[in-house]
Structures are given as structure tokens and as C-alpha cells.
């Protein structure tokens, strides 16, 4: 069995907040050796563009953006002053992504579109040059109704896949793990999606969904633990962020480093985005993942130094966290493979810190996010205020460039959370800050 250095395993098992710096980080030239490249991400971007008119027709909320599903890059001056007074700090507001209300929108919708397009083309229901709005015609919809799109999820991927599959007329089945929030199940059921509740954690929900779909020739399973169409769909975010930074006249280059902090569950979303960011910015971008202290699955996998699976259970953790979007015990090996040479590091965050930052953001910037989405907020603290972080910056000559640096906190979910849930998160954060 693969293993971790003993002191690291002990620190993680004790749930001590940690910054792990990747000893196998390589220059961005390592991109050339990876199994997913720029052409794969470009194909996903083109699919989303080709299908934008279809999306605008299916979802009225996308009319204003002509079917583009994108989030703003927001200045947060008060939070920046509190978290990271040196340099610039911004929020990439995926908590407000339309249609799905989380980072899962781009990847999940991309994968359902790929399945729908491929099926309709193979069966001759549309021609290759046809406008993709044809996929919403009653004749095609009726044929889609014969097929099931299934997924296993802790909640947000289920929302994204379920909403998109149902909108195209597929039967949609979402296998939810025990930590999935009730309101997410209710919201899906209202859309006609079948929700199967499992008593076990994320890995079991995925396995059950995979097994059910395997037994049905008319079922397509979105496999969060291995999916390339999810990952490339997520990666499309990077090029769009690059355009937003250009529009804001924010330089990213050797003299103006970019630091991006991404909450990580199974790893597909943050790995896709990290891959896209490395393709866009090369060595000028430093990407860190954030994981709950109870569920540091990517940290454990990457620190084991290889791709033999190692889970948080193997080191004595229970994967029980309020950060339901990140409650994953074993990382995607596809994501781990891609990140092994590109990821700067991973830090862990106790639940209490998530609630405090949810409350800070609400109070200072009037933005409401779910606890998972606040995991990245600990990034500047871990990097700039720890001996290990400062030594890492100095070794890369980044310490002298912090005045010209840009830090981006990626807020990954929350706009669909009911108001009373937000109020509970914020009350808990406020009490923790006072205590
Ligand atoms: C799913 C999710 C993530 C992480 O994505 P993975 O692909 O699971 O790593 C982060 N934040 C939220 C809110 C999520 O729902």
C-alpha cells in the first residue's frame, strides 16, 4: 500500500491545519507530457459556444448572456484588506454561476451536452451542421426521453447534471450521498429528477450510480471520479478568467504573479481549472487547492507520490465535514495525475474557519456563499503567514513581487442555498468569531 511520510500522516490525522507544498512541482513545460491538452479544452469551449443558443432557449436566465454560463471577477476591498493587504485580492464568483449555482455548471452542463450531441448525431436525429437548438425540438426530446442520465454526487454535481439532463428531456437520476443537503434533493425533485438517497458517503453513492447505469443499455453515467468531459468543461473557465483579467488591465507575468486558491472535492473541477490556468499563464500562475481537515483526499494522494489509490480513511480520518461539496474520501486519479507536476500545493481548513470566512464575506462584501466555497480563503493566510509558505515564496523569488501579485479566491457555490440556511451558516460564523 502507498504511504505518507510519518510526520505528515500524523499532522493530517490530528486534523491540524496544514500547508503542503508539492515537491514534484515542475515548470509549465510539463504540460506537454500530460494526457489532456489544449486541443481537448478548446473542443469543450467550442461545444459550449456551439450550444449557447440552445442553452439560452432552455434557460431564460441565460437570455442576457446569449447562452454563456459565466461568473464575474469581483473586487472585494474590505475582505482584501483583512486577508491579504499586500498586492491585489479578487473573487471569482462561481457561487453565482447561473443554471446550477456552483462551479459544477460548466463541467456538468458540458458533459450532458456532449452526450446529447453525440447521441443525436450517431442516431441521425440531427445533421453535423445543424443548429444545436434542434436538440430542443419535440421530436428529438421525445427520443431523449428513452434515455437516462445518471450521476453520483454530494449535491452540487447532482444539481448541475440533473437540471441540464431534465431540461433536454432525459430521465435524470441522481445518487446522493448521506451528506447531501435536503434542499438540494427537494430542488431536484421539483424539476422531475429522481433522487436516490444512499446512507453511505460520496464514494458509495458514485459506485451505486455506476452499477445501476452499467446494467441499463439506455443509461449514461457521468463518472465524477474519471470524467474527461467534466474536466475539460471546467477547464474552459481559465481562458474566460484570462479575458476578464485583461479587461480589468491586470497583468499576469513573471513580474506580476497570480495565486489562485480553489476548493477541492474529488478534484475534477479544480484540476480542470488549474490545467486551463497553466495553459493560459504558464509559470506566472501558482495554483493551490483547499480541502477540509477531515477530507484532504487530494493532499493524501499527491503526497503519496504516485497513483496507487490512497484515501483519507487509510490515514484514520472520517471524511465528516460541513463542507458537503468537498466531502470526498478518495481523489480522482485523473485529477491527481494531471496535478502531480502542476499544482503548487494543498492546504487544509477546519470547518470552523469555513464558517468564520462565510460570515466575514457576508458582513464585509454582502456576498453569501456555502461553507465549501470559503475553503480557499485560508490560502493567503497559510502561504503568507507560515514559515513553510514564506520559504517557498523566497525560493522562487516571489517574496519580492508580492506588491504586484494578484490573489484569486474561487467561490464555488452558494447562490441556490435557501435564505434560512445562509442565516444559519452566518450565525455560526459570527458566534465563532466572537468566541
Ligand atoms: C464540487 C465542488 C467543489 C470541488 O469540485 P470537485 O470536482 O469535487 O473537486 C468545490 N466547491 C463546491 C461548492 C462544490 O460543489
UniProtKB/TrEMBL annotation:
GO terms for molecular function: D-serine ammonia-lyase activity; hydro-lyase activity; pyridoxal phosphate binding. GO terms for biological process: D-serine catabolic process; isoleucine biosynthetic process. Its EC number is 4.3.1.18. Residues 69-380 form the Tryptophan synthase beta chain-like PALP domain. The modification N6-(pyridoxal phosphate)lysine is found at residue 104. The keyword Lyase applies. It comes from the Bacteria. InterPro entries: D_Ser_am_lyase (IPR011780), Ser/Thr_Dehydratase (IPR050147), TrpB-like_PALP (IPR001926), TrpB-like_PALP_sf (IPR036052). It holds the Pfam family PALP. It is an enzyme of class 4 (lyase). It catalyses: D-serine = pyruvate + NH4(+). Its cofactor is pyridoxal 5'-phosphate. Keywords: Lyase, Pyridoxal phosphate. Belongs to the serine/threonine dehydratase family. DsdA subfamily. HAMAP family: D_Ser_dehydrat. This is Probable D-serine dehydratase. It comes from Crenobacter luteus. The gene is dsdA.
Amino acid at each position: 500500500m502507498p504511504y505518507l511520510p510519518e510526520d505528515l500522516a500524523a499532522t493530517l490525522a490530528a486534523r491540524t491545519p496544514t500547508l503542503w507544498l508539492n515537491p514534484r512541482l515542475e515548470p509549465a513545460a510539463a504540460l506537454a507530457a500530460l494526457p489532456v491538452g489544449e486541443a481537448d479544452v478548446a473542443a469543450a469551449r467550442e461545444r459550449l459556444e456551439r450550444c449557447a443558443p440552445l442553452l439560452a432557449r432552455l434557460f431564460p436566465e441565460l437570455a442576457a448572456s446569449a447562452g454563456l454560463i459565466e461568473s464575474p471577477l469581483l473586487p472585494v476591498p474590505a475582505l482584501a484588506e483583512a486577508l491579504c493587504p499586500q498586492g491585489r485580492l479578487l473573487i471569482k464568483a462561481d457561487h453565482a454561476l447561473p443554471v446550477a449555482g456552483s462551479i459544477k455548471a460548466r463541467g456538468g452542463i458540458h458533459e450532458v451536452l456532449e452526450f446529447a450531441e453525440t447521441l443525436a448525431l450517431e442516431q441521425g436525429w440531427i445533421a453535423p451542421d445543424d443548429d444545436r437548438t434542434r436538440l430542443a425540438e419535440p421530436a428529438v426530446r421525445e427520443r431523449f426521453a428513452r434515455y437516462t442520465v445518471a450521476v453520483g454526487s454530494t449535491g452540487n454535481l447532482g444539481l448541475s447534471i440533473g437540471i441540464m439532463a431534465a431540461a433536454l428531456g432525459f430521465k435524470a437520476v441522481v445518487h446522493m450521498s448521506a451528506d447531501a443537503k435536503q434542499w438540494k434533493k427537494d430542488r431536484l425533485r421539483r424539476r422531475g429528477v429522481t433522487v436516490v438517497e444512499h446512507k453511505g458517503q460520496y464514494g458509495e453513492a458514485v459506485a451505486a450510480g455506476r452499477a445501476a447505469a452499467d446494467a441499463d443499455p439506455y443509461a449514461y453515467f457521468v463518472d465524477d471520479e474519471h470524467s474527461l468531459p467534466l474536466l475539460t468543461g471546467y477547464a474552459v473557465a481559465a481562458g474566460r478568467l484570462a479575458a476578464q483579467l485583461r479587461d480589468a488591465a491586470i497583468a499576469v507575468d513573471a513580474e506580476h504573479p497570480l495565486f489562485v486558491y480553489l476548493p477541492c472535492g474529488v478534484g475534477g473541477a479544480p484540476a480542470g481549472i488549474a490545467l486551463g490556468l497553466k495553459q493560459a499563464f504558464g509559470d506566472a500562475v501558482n495554483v493551490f487547492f483547499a480541502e477540509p481537515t477531515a477530507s484532504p483526499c487530494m493532499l493524501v494522494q499527491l503526497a503519496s507520490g504516485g497513483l496507487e489509490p490512497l484515501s483519507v480513511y487509510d490515514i484514520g480520518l472520517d471524511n465528516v465535514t460541513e463542507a458537503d461539496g468537498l466531502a470526498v474520501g478518495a481523489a480522482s486519479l485523473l485529477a491527481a495525475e494531471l496535478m502531480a507536476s502542476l499544482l503548487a500545493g494543498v492546504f487544509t481548513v477546519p470547518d470552523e474557519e469555513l464558517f468564520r470566512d462565510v460570515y466575514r464575506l457576508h458582513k464585509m462584501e454582502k456576498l453569501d456563499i456555502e461553507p465549501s466555497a470559503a475553503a480557499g480563503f485560508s490560502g493567503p493566510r497559510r502561504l503568507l503567514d507560515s514559515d513553510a509558505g514564506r520559504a517557498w515564496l523566497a525560493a522562487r523569488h516571489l517574496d519580492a513581487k508580492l506588491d504586484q501579485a494578484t490573489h484569486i479566491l474561487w467561490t464555488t457555490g452558494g447562490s441556490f442555498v435557501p435564505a434560512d440556511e445562509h442565516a444559519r451558516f452566518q450565525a455560526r460564523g459570527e458566534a465563532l468569531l466572537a468566541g
